[in-house]
Design a protein that fits this description.
heterodimer; A: 405 residues; alpha/beta; Metallo-beta-lactamase, Chain A; Rossmann fold; 2 domains; seven-stranded mixed beta sheet; five-stranded mixed beta sheet; 12 helices; B: 44 residues; mainly beta; Rubrerythrin, domain 2; binds flavin mononucleotide; binds fe (ii) ion; binds zinc ion
């Protein structure tokens, strides 16, 4: 793409990545892509805010050349050390050997360890300012959103916040870099929740802290380092705040993440019956075959829906391994406050339920009931499954009503 | 010799080394590494 002006003398200088398959080496982005947004401020001093992953070096430098000579860059602000924003650091230091990097004390230490550079470094902490001429940058520590060294940068003249990963999303940018220029934001909002649940969710408490902090600033534009730029910042802040609360205090939305897996179809058969029971009660459900769906796509539903159904057969006296993996991931991401039922087939002496219960204790999820049967389900099992689904839906609806009133 | 791990950042609180049982720490004690509250710790 080309450099795009956001406000006079402040430019988006990002890269779209449509060819990487995995973000952070784990999260699929083959279909969705991702953007690494870097920004340029041209003033008496020239500053770049965040860099990009170490790809498309020529494109990155050419884009800078559209507005300034890259060798004259004075400052590079490192909001966050993760290599998706610092991969271009060595290149930039070679191009502009007199550049001063700016970041937290922690970033200074990590920069040395990650890139072994001998550089000028300006350490900043909350409230510190950097004058560029008519523009002034201010820095705010937002630790653990989602790494310990993270800061956000605020440009006071144009009231722009550069929060790096916070308020970011997957999804390469389409025709525009601005959210308000899209007819339909559904794709980006979904990808923002997937990104949140994959990367930020575990640190929801810190995210809320960061949100409270930035609420003390007068912000007109939020320019994150992944995804769209928001000239209506409330829209994305409200979403992030809602999601962060799911991870700290409030229970999620009324709905069910329906996880199942099946080796030969016995558990799958009852899946249909349980889902029917749920649907008859008119509750939103999202069904995932956990053996065939990457956990990246499951986490956003686990994050937002209050209910979880676990349909898993016994496998070598334990849960079916892909199910165990999804639950491990939910534990690691600190998915909390869920209501749960389970069903599943076993062949001789079972074991899945015994394996599940300590996992649920660890998750602090509330198991209401479970239903197991040997081998293929009978018509009686089908009926029991449907009733199980209905009871669960009624339970969730009553919790939901309780909360509404 | 009980140890407690911060589920957020991985910091380990070692009761032996600290000389204070985790349960005996005040309720407003927070993880020295990341600031997470006591409830984010689990026994390891
Ligand atoms: C999502 C994520 C979480 C991380 N969590 C930790 C952590 O809790 N503690 C730590 O010391 N490093 C953590 N790291 C930093 C990595 O261990 C570090 O970047 C390392 O150099 C990665 O090695 P690799 O390039 O072989 O993957 C994390 C990195 C990422 C991307
Ligand atoms: Fe990051
Ligand atoms: Fe990032
Ligand atoms: Zn911690």
């Amino acid at each position: 793409m080309v450099c795009i002006e956001i406000t006079p003398n402040i430019y988006w200088n990002g890269l779209n990545d449509r060819t990487s398959d995995l973000f952070e080496g784990i999260w699929p982005i083959t279909k969705e892509g991702v953007s690494y947004n870097s920004y340029i401020i041209v003033d008496d001093k020239i500053a770049l805010i965040d860099l990009v992953k170490g790809i498309k070096t020529d494109d990155f430098l050419s884009q800078i050349e559209e507005v300034v000579d890259p060798t004259t860059v004075d400052y590079i602000i490192i909001n966050h050390m993760e290599p998706d924003h610092t991969g271009m650091i060595k290149t930039m230091q070679k191009v502009a050997p007199n550049v001063t990097f700016v970041g937290s004390e922690r970033t200074k230490q990590m920069l040395e360890k990650f890139y072994h550079l001998n550089t000028n470094f300006l350490v900043v902490k909350t409230g510190d300012k950097l004058e560029l001429g008519t523009h002034t940058l201010e820095f705010y520590d937002i630790p653990f959103v989602h790494w310990p060294e993270t800061i956000a940068t605020y440009e006071r003249k144009n009231k722009i916040l550069f929060p790096c990963d916070a308020f970011g999303s997957y999804g390469a940018l389409g025709g525009s870099i601005f959210a308000d220029e899209y007819e339909d934001l559904e794709f980006y909002k979904e990808e923002a929740l997937r990104y949140y649940s994959n990367i930020v969710a575990k640190f929801s408490r810190f995210t809320l802290k960061a949100i409270n902090l930035i609420k003390t600033l007068d912000i007109e534009i939020i320019a994150p380092s992944h995804g769209l730029i928001w000239r209506n910042p409330k829209e994305i802040v409200d979403l992030y705040e809602k999601w962060a609360r799911y991870g700290t205090e409030t229970a999620g939305e009324n709905g069910v993440t329906f996880l199942y897996a099946s080796m030969y179809g016995n558990t799958e058969k009852l899946m249909g019956a349980v889902a029917q029971g749920l649907s008859q009660e008119g509750i939103p459900i999202k069904i995932f075959d956990v053996a065939r769906t990457h956990v990246s796509y499951i986490l956003p539903y686990l994050w937002k829906y209050r209910g979880v159904v676990i349909g898993s057969p016994t496998y070598e006296a334990k849960l079916f391994p892909p199910m165990a993996y999804v639950l491990d991931m939910a534990t690691s991401k600190r998915v909390i406050n869920k209501e749960v039922i389970r069903f599943g087939s076993f062949g001789w002496s079972g074991g899945a339920q015994r394996d599940l219960e300590p996992r649920l204790d660890k998750l602090k999820w509330n198991l209401l009931e479970f239903y197991e049967w040997q081998g293929g389900p009978t018509s009686e099992d089908f009926q029991k499954g449907e009733e199980l689904g209905k009871r669960f839906a009624k339970h969730l609806k009553s919790l939901h009503l309780e909360r509404e009133s | 010799m009980t140890k407690w791990e911060c589920m957020i950042c991985g910091y380990v609180y070692d009761e032996d080394a600290e000389g204070v049982k985790f349960e005996d720490l005040p309720d407003d004690w927070v993880c020295p590494e990341c600031g997470a509250p006591k409830e984010d710790f689990e026994k390891i």
